[in-house]
Structure formats: structure tokens, C-alpha cells
């Protein structure tokens, strides 16, 4: 009997320890996510993908200029264990109507029992994985975000519940103090944006041949510290002819002096390097350039030309993005998030000055009776509001004639048709008020949609 009691006590102890362990290791519930499909086949908004060391602080800057600051040990697996191996962080931003439309993410919200469309000032998705396994933000950890936003007005902050497909409000715009920098939401204008030096691609130093009329300065330099010349073989050094510095050939004593140390560092915005030789009692400073013999020069020149083509292409892309941010009058919203997912700065789209019509839709080059494979979108408020128009809503279609309005239909095979902003402006609103109905004839575009950039260019042009 005593042995049985002891056995039962051991079993009870194991159960207590097991429960205690589970309670003290925070787990993350893995839920089935609602799948959001693009209306276009094989077209999506590509993410910025960055691999980071989760045990160190990391700052990710997206191509659009947003910044995500991640603390060390921020990620855990679904069982609560800390992630220690590299994490692939993927971020997608949806800043324009093309990206919102392609995302397939719902842009509606229930408020007081009534369904409203969203007007968005910036939406993004952030997730991560380690070796293909989903990771989560650990309890007590948060990611600081500087998000490029399309408008500086008052917007609520929402997180999409990916299990239900519904938006949940996280920050109420009415609760935000005005004209104050906040941990939750502070806004700064992106004005005359410039390319961040940290984002600039590597630009190699143009190779030069050895000048046989000059002395060669050959010393052991660790070129790993100079990536702009590290790809070249057989690098030696010669005087740069910069008259601000001494010419080694006019100071022959330096060649017979035993130098104990040397320091080499790039001169700012130049292909020259400052060389300082020093010993206990003297020093010599001059300006030098890397040079190569004939054989190494030819190889280096090919490498340089390829690098310059890539450099110019990447710089053009960076400058294009900077120009876009300045032109579109973007702002930065600063806040923090404590879980991965899809977030949106939104306000409910309420337009009191609307003209309501019983709408029908046709296409100038296409006869269709079946609209099952066609999705129609109404785009307004400078592209910040994208409204899906199922056939059941056509009888109560409404728009503000004073706003910039567009209609886009997604047709089979990634084709589109549109009713442009100029088409809206040419409507006879008095006649619409009298008749109460209108058939919108959409123009079918010749080209197919192949990317979000492609669609955005078209939407900006119509």
C-alpha cells in the first residue's frame, strides 16, 4: 500500500511540473489564415525580404523608405521558444490604389452595425520565418515603425484579424493629442527627400594603369577594408598628383626610412586615399591612388564597367523612389507594433456630397452578359479609397462629382477596362439627377497587367 501511495505521489508530481512548465513558457496560437487573392493571375505586391540575426538589434529600411527597428531576441516559435537562427523578415507596403487592389485585402469595416469602406493612409504586412517555420513577436517585445504614409490627416490604426478576415481597431485617431510627438503615432513630412547613404549601392573606383614615370608604393594593405577596390588583383599605389600633399619622388628619403606604421583612408568624395607613414620620430603624409599593371588593368576595367551599369541602374531606381515620395507629399507615421500581421491607417469613407445612381456597366470592345469572372472597382480620394462593386451594389452606386473618381474592371486573362477621371468630369450631373440611372461604358485596354507598378502607371494616367 505504501509503495502504491509513493507511486501515485510521483505521478502527481510529474503532472504538476508539466503544467507549471507549460504555464511558464508562453505559447503562440497558430490559427488558419484567411487567404486574400489578387484579382489578377500571378500578379502580387512583392515584399522587401531581409534576413537578420534575431539575437541582435536590426533596422530594416524598405525600398519605399519606411523603417522597421527590431530589438534583439524579439522572435519566438509557436511553442514560445526563442528563435536563435537567422530570420527572414518580409514586409509588403500598400501605398496606392494599384497595390491595395492587387493585394485582395478587404477594405471594409463594421461600425455600429453598419458597413463602411476604408480610406487608407498606409497599409503594410509584416511576417517572418526561420527555416520555413513561422515566427512571432515575443511577449514584451515590439517593433518601432516609421511608415511612409500618403496623407497627414487623422486616421485610426487597425490590425486585420487573419482568422476572421475582419479589422480590429488598435488606435483611435480621436485619442491622439494634436501637434505632439507620440510613441503611438507621430507624423513628419517627407520634404525634399534624399537618397540615404546607407542605401547606396557599391561603386567601384575606376582602375588606373601604373605610371612608369613615378615610383611605386607597395605595402601590405588589407583590401577587405576597401570594398571599392577589393575586387581588383595586384593593386599597388602611386602619388595622385594632388598638389596639397607631398610628392614621394621629391622626398626620396622616405624610401630609405624604416617606417613602423602606416595608415590608409579614403579622402571624402574622391578616388584618392590619404597615406600616412610614421615611425617614432617622424611621419610622412601624401595622397595616393590604386594602380594596376597592364594585365590586371584589362581585367579590372571589365569588372568596373559591369559594376557601373549596375550602379547607375540601382541609383536611378533609388532616385525615382525619392522623387515619388517628394512629389506625392508623403509623410512618416511613427508608432510601435507588438505582433506580426497586416496593419492599416484608415478612416471610414463617409462622403455626404454624393450623387446616387442606378448603375450598369458595359465595355466598348467586349459584349458580356456574364459578370462572374469580372471584378469592378471604384477608386476615389486620390487613390486612397478602393471600393469593390459586386453586382448587388450597382443599384445604389454613389460618387462625389467634385472628387477625382475612376472605375476599373478586371477582366479575364489579366486585361482591364476603365472609366477615367476625365470621363467622370464630362458627365452631365444635372441629367443624372433627373434620370437616376447611368450606363458606364468602360474602355478596354490593349495591354495585360503584369505587375503592381504596371497597373499603377495606368491608373495615374487615366
Q: Which structural category fits the helices and strands?
A: alpha+beta
Number of helices: 7
CATH topology value of the largest domain? Chondroitinase Ac, Chain A, domain 3
Count up the domains. Answer: 3
Structural shape: elongated
The stretches of 5 or more residues where confidence is low (pLDDT under 50) are 14-25, 175-192
Beta-strand content bin: 25-35%
CATH class of the largest domain: Mainly Beta
| Counted beta strands | 26
The Cα radius of gyration reads: 31 Å
What is the CATH architecture term of the largest domain? Sandwich
**Amino- and carboxy-terminal Cα gap:** 88 Å
Provide the helix percentage.
10-25%
Mean pLDDT score: 82
* Main sheet characteristics: 8 strands, antiparallel
List its salient traits.
alpha+beta; 3 domains; 8-stranded antiparallel beta sheet
Quick synopsis:
Helices cover 19% and strands 32% of the residues.
Question: What does it look like?
Answer:
This protein has helices at 2-23, 97-103, 253-256, 294-327, 421-425, 429-435, 452-461, and strands at residues 48-52, 58-61, 67-70, 75-76, 87-94, 108-111, 114-130, 133-134, 136-137, 143-149, 156-161, 166-171, 186-189, 236-239, 261-266, 273-278, 283-291, 331-337, 341-348, 355-363, 375-380, 385-388, 397-399, 406-410, 416-419, 437-444. 26% of the residues are buried. Residues 14-25 and 175-192 have low confidence and may be disordered. Helices cover 19% and strands 32% of the residues. The chain has 462 residues and is of the alpha+beta class.
Amino acid at each position: 500500500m505504501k509503495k502504491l501511495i509513493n507511486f501515485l505521489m510521483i505521478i502527481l508530481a510529474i503532472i504538476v511540473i508539466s503544467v507549471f512548465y507549460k504555464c511558464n513558457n508562453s505559447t503562440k496560437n497558430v490559427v488558419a489564415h484567411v487567404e486574400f487573392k489578387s484579382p489578377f493571375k500571378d500578379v502580387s505586391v512583392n515584399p522587401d525580404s531581409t534576413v537578420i540575426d534575431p539575437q541582435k538589434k536590426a533596422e530594416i529600411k524598405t525600398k519605399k523608405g519606411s523603417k522597421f527597428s527590431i530589438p534583439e531576441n524579439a522572435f519566438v516559435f509557436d511553442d514560445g521558444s526563442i528563435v536563435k537562427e537567422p530570420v527572414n523578415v518580409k514586409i509588403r507596403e500598400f501605398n496606392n490604389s494599384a497595390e491595395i487592389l492587387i493585394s485582395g485585402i478587404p477594405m471594409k469595416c463594421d461600425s455600429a452595425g453598419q458597413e463602411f469602406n476604408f480610406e487608407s493612409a498606409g497599409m503594410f504586412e509584416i511576417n517572418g520565418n526561420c527555416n520555413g517555420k513561422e515566427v512571432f513577436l515575443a511577449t514584451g517585445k515590439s517593433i518601432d515603425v516609421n511608415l511612409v504614409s500618403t496623407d497627414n490627416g487623422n486616421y485610426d490604426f487597425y490590425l486585420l484579424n487573419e482568422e476572421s478576415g475582419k479589422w480590429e481597431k488598435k488606435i483611435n485617431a480621436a485619442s491622439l493629442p494634436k501637434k505632439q510627438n507620440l510613441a503611438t503615432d507621430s507624423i513628419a513630412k517627407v520634404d525634399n527627400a534624399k537618397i540615404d547613404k546607407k542605401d547606396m549601392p557599391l561603386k567601384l573606383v575606376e582602375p588606373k594603369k601604373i605610371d612608369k614615370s613615378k615610383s611605386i608604393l607597395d605595402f601590405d594593405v588589407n583590401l577587405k577594408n576597401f570594398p571599392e577596390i577589393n575586387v581588383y588583383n595586384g593593386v599597388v599605389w602611386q602619388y595622385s598628383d594632388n598638389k596639397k600633399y607631398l610628392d614621394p619622388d621629391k622626398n626620396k628619403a622616405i624610401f630609405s626610412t624604416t617606417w613602423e606604421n602606416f595608415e590608409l583612408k579614403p579622402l571624402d568624395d574622391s578616388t584618392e586615399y590619404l597615406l600616412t607613414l610614421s615611425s617614432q620620430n617622424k611621419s610622412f603624409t601624401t595622397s595616393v591612388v590604386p594602380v594596376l599593371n597592364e594585365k590586371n588593368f584589362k581585367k579590372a576595367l571589365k569588372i568596373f564597367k559591369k559594376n557601373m551599369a549596375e550602379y547607375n541602374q540601382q541609383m536611378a531606381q533609388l532616385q525615382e523612389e525619392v522623387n515619388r515620395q517628394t512629389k506625392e507629399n508623403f509623410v512618416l507615421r511613427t508608432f510601435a507594433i507588438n505582433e506580426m500581421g497586416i496593419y492599416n491607417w484608415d478612416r471610414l469613407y463617409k462622403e455626404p456630397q454624393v450623387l446616387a445612381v442606378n448603375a450598369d456597366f458595359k465595355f466598348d470592345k467586349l459584349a458580356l452578359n456574364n459578370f462572374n469572372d469580372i471584378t469592378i472597382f471604384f477608386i476615389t480620394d486620390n487613390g486612397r479609397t478602393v471600393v469593390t462593386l459586386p453586382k448587388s451594389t450597382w443599384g445604389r452606386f454613389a460618387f462625389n462629382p467634385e472628387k477625382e473618381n475612376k472605375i476599373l474592371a478586371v477582366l479575364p486573362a489579366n486585361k482591364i477596362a476603365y472609366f477615367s477621371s476625365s470621363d467622370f468630369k464630362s458627365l452631365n450631373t444635372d441629367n443624372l439627377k433627373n434620370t437616376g440611372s447611368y450606363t458606364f461604358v468602360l474602355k478596354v485596354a490593349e495591354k495585360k497587367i503584369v505587375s503592381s507598378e504596371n497597373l499603377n502607371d495606368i491608373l495615374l494616367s487615366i
